[in-house]
Design a protein that fits this description.
Aminopeptidase; 10 helices; 12-stranded mixed β-sheet; 30% strand; 31% helix; 12 strands; binds coenzyme A
């Protein structure tokens, strides 16, 4: 166990793409080895690829942080080694700028000396200097060390989100009386309401998600056709056989995303999700089988767990969104 050293802020400096990319990739790999998934490995491969691109490495310095994203942030150098890293990602969404803090990592030989705290404080200072009010980050629910670190600095927990993933297959049987059809235009107002409830802005900073893109309006459809965008939507209903109009239980949507798995976006209510998801998930999985990719769903922690498990999904992780407001 190394003896704690007094912290010197002079160890903190801006990341320099000309020399830091490879040591940063190595540090992230060392620090996150236990939890690195396929997307994480792809991310590291991209950093290493960027490091090997002399044109990029020559072009980036001096272009500003927005051009440099996601290769921007602060590092901690000590004893001639890069032993700490923090990435800063400016994001414009919902009509305002926020920053995301990511990849906070300190080499195991240098932990509990206040390095992560100092890097985070420096990042918050950066955010204030750029007149941005809010910083967000995500931390795994089993990472007590990092959670305490952020909490002690003033970050506040806002939500917990689980990622469920299933291999390319379709396992569960819908409950009797629930029918799945392609989405109808009349389903959109409820779908939009449920999407806004299930995926509020505060939980999608780092995602390409935009509910408006799913609108069935002809202008939106035309725009997608012109862009070659693909989407599929299915609705689940029950009743409607002489017992009054059928009740919409939920809608599920797919559009291609970069990354290891296909993403599905669920729109349903807490009252109906346990009927809607067992019908919608296998239907969407069956339609996506030819793509031979795993399927994942981001969902509020603790909700519809048995529906996901029964459909062959397993819990990949639960991430806590934390917010810091600069005043
Ligand atoms: C989490 C991590 C970045 C902390 O780095 P660090 O430089 O050791 O942290 P600091 O010394 O600045 O600790 C600041 C505070 O965090 C908390 N903390 C840090 N490590 C802790 C641990 N192992 N157990 C409990 N609390 C811990 C404490 O509140 C600590 O304050 P204290 O030392 O006064 O008690 C480091 O352990 C790491 O790289 N972990 C692997 C990668 C990771 O999980 N990153 C976070 C992703 S969200």
């Amino acid at each position: 166990m190394p003896t704690p050293l007094p912290v010197k802020t002079s160890h903190v400096r801006l990341l320099d793409v000309r020399r830091d990319l490879l040591p940063v990739a190595d540090l992230i790999e060392t620090c996150f080895s236990a939890t690195l998934d396929q997307d994480g490995r792809d991310y590291l491969r991209h950093i290493r690829k960027a490091a090997a691109d002399p044109a990029l490495v020559r072009w980036l310095p001096g272009r500003g942080e927005r051009a440099s994203t996601p290769l921007f942030g602060y590092v901690w150098e000590q004893d001639g080694r890069l032993v700490g890293n923090l990435s800063l990602i400016p994001i414009y969404k919902g009509g305002r700028w926020v920053y995301m803090i990511a990849n906070v990592a300190v080499h195991p030989d240098y932990r509990r000396r206040g390095i992560a705290r100092e890097l985070t404080l420096r990042a918050l200072e950066h955010i204030r200097q750029h007149r941005v009010q809010t910083a967000w980050l995500q931390v795994r629910d089993d990472n007590a060390a990092a959670y305490h670190l952020y909490q002690s600095i003033g970050f506040i927990e806002r939500s917990r989100r689980s990622t469920w993933m299933a291999p390319p297959s379709a396992q569960c049987d819908p409950l009797p009386g629930v029918q799945v059809t392609p989405r109808r235009a009349e389903d959109w107002p409820l779908q939009l309401k449920w999407l806004n409830e299930l995926y509020p802005l505060e939980t999608t900073w780092n995602m390409s998600f935009n509910a408006a893109r799913f609108s069935p309006h002809w202008l939106n459809q035309l725009w997608q056709w012109l862009n070659g965008d693909q989407q599929m939507h299915w609705s689940a209903r029950k009743g409607g056989n002489g017992s009054g109009p059928a009740q919409l239980l939920g809608v599920i949507s797919w559009e291609p995303v970069r990354g290891y798995s296909d993403m599905l976006w669920a729109a349903t209510s807490p009252e109906d999700e346990n009927e809607a998801l067992p019908a919608l998930l296998p239907h969407a999985q069956r339609a996506l089988l030819p793509r031979r990719r795993p399927v994942s769903v981001n969902y509020p922690y603790g909700r519809a767990m048995s529906a996901f498990l029964d459909c062959g999904f397993s819990l990949q992780n639960t991430l806590i969104w934390m917010e810091y407001r600069c005043n």
